[in-house]
Design a protein that fits this description.
The protein is α/β, with parallel strands linked by helices. It folds into two domains: 4-229, P-loop containing nucleotide triphosphate hydrolases (Rossmann fold, 3-Layer(aba) Sandwich); 247-287, no CATH class. It contains twelve helices and ten strands. The protein has helices spanning 47-51, 76-85, 102-112, 117-130, 135-138, 147-159, 177-194, 205-211, 229-233, 236-241, 248-258, 270-286, and strands at residues 4-13, 21-31, 36-41, 62-67, 70-71, 86-89, 165-169, 197-201, 214-219, 222-228. A six-stranded mixed β-sheet has the order 6-7-8-3-9-10. Helix 7 (177-194) links the parallel strand 7 (165-169) and strand 8. Helix 4 (117-130) packs across helix 6. The radius of gyration is 21 Å and the shape is globular. Bound molecules: adenosine-5'-triphosphate (ATP) and magnesium ion. The site of magnesium ion has 4 residues, from helix 1.
C-alpha cells in the first residue's frame, strides 16, 4: 500500500472572491515507502501549495490525502497526527528559528509531541548528527550560526520528529554550491540510514534526476508529468516545451537530434550519454 496517496486534489485560494486562484488542479499521486519523490516546476506552479496538504496544513478545496490508506481529514485527531507523521520543512526554514539555543530549536517539534526528556534528548542529538552539527554548536544561539548551519539546524528540527515522510521545500535555495552539496548529501544519507520516505521540491532538474526515484512536474497547478525518473526525464522535449531547465546532457542530445544526428533523445545522465556516444562511435567504426 502507498504511504501517501493524493486523489484528485485541488486547492483554490480566496475561493468565490474576485481574488480566487486555482493553485492546484486535480493532482493525483502515490508514494510508496522509502521512495524519494522529486517535485519540479516553475515558480508559482503550485508545488508549495500541493505539499502543504500532505500534513494537513492546508485543507483541499476538493480531493483527498491518505496516509497509509486513511484520509487525514477524517477527523481532528487524524489531521493533528498527520502533523507529526509528515515532517514539513518550509522554504527558508531558518526564518523560523527563534529559541535561545540551537538545542531548544531542534527540540521544539519533539517537545510538542509530548515525549519524555530522555527521548527528546536522544532525538535532538541524533538529528544534529544527521545534519552534521557538532555538539558544541547546540548550546549556541541560532543567530550565531552561518547561513548553511542555520538551514541544517532547521532541517534537524523536522528530522527530530522522526516523521514517516520528510518533506523538504527547496532545501538548497539561496545556498552557495558547497552548502547545496552538503544539504543534498545529508538528505541522501538520512534516507539510506532511516529508510524514510522523502519528498523533495527542487528547481534543479539535475538534482532530481540524480536523487529521486519518482518525479512530479507541476505546470500551472497541474501534474504535467508524473512517473519514475526514467519516464519523466526521457521526455526532455516536453520538459523543454514547458520552459524547464533540463539537465545539460539532455539539451545536448536534443540539439544533436535537431541537427539530424541519429541519437536518442531520452538521455538525462552522464552515464547514459557516455553509452550513447559509445554506441554511435561503434556504428561509425563498423561502417
Ligand atoms: N497564501 C496565498 N494566497 C493566495 N494565493 C497564493 C497563496 N500562496 C500561493 N498563492 C498563489 O498560488 C499559486 C501557486 O503558488 P505556490 O507557492 O504553491 O507555487 P510554487 O510552485 O511553490 O512557487 P515557488 O517555486 O516560487 O515556490 C501562485 O499563483 C501563487 O501566487
Ligand atoms: Mg514554493
Amino acid at each position: 500500500m502507498a504511504v501517501l496517496e493524493v486523489r484528485n486534489l485541488s486547492h483554490c485560494y480566496g475561493a468565490k472572491t474576485q481574488m480566487q486562484v486555482f493553485a492546484v488542479k486535480n493532482v493525483s499521486l502515490r508514494v510508496e515507502a522509502g521512495e524519494l519523490l522529486g517535485v519540479i516546476g516553475h515558480t508559482g506552479s503550485g508545488k508549495s501549495t500541493l505539499i502543504q496538504h500532505f500534513n494537513g496544513l492546508l485543507t483541499p478545496t476538493s480531493g483527498e490525502v491518505l496516509l497509509d490508506g486513511e484520509n487525514i481529514f477524517k477527523d481532528k485527531a487524524t489531521t493533528h497526527a498527520a502533523r507529526f507523521r509528515v515532517g514539513m520543512c518550509f522554504q527558508y526554514p531558518e526564518y523560523q528559528l527563534f529559541e535561545e539555543t540551537v538545542y531548544k530549536d531542534i527540540s521544539f517539534g519533539p517537545r510538542n509531541m509530548k515525549l519524555s526528556d530522555d527521548e527528546i534528548d536522544r532525538r535532538v542529538r541524533k538529528a544534529a548528527q544527521f545534519v552534521g552539527l557538532p555538539d558544541a554548536l547546540l548550546e549556541k544561539s541560532p543567530f550565531d550560526l552561518s547561513g548553511g548551519e542555520k538551514r541544517r539546524a532547521a532541517i534537524a528540527g523536522v528530522m527530530a520528529m522522526e516523521p514517516e515522510i520528510l518533506v523538504l521545500d527547496e532545501p538548497t535555495a539561496g545556498l552557495d554550491p558547497r552548502g547545496r552539496d552538503t544539504i543534498l548529501r545529508l538528505v541522501e544519507h538520512y534516507r539510506t540510514e532511516t529508510g524514510s520516505t522523502v519528498i523533495l521540491v527542487s528547481h534543479s532538474m539535475e538534482d532530481i534526476a540524480r536523487m529521486a526515484t519518482k518525479a512530479l512536474v507541476m505546470n500551472r497547478g497541474e501534474a504535467a508529468l508524473y512517473g519514475t525518473v526514467d519516464e519523466v526525464f526521457s521526455q526532455g522535449d516536453k520538459l523543454v516545451s514547458m520552459g524547464l531547465d533540463v539537465p545539460a546532457v539532455t539539451r545536448i542530445f536534443l540539439s544533436l537530434h535537431d541537427r539530424g544526428v541519429p541519437v536518442r533523445t531520452d538521455v538525462y545522465t552522464n552515464e547514459q550519454a557516455a553509452a550513447e556516444f559509445r554506441r554511435l562511435l561503434g556504428k561509425e567504426a563498423r561502417a
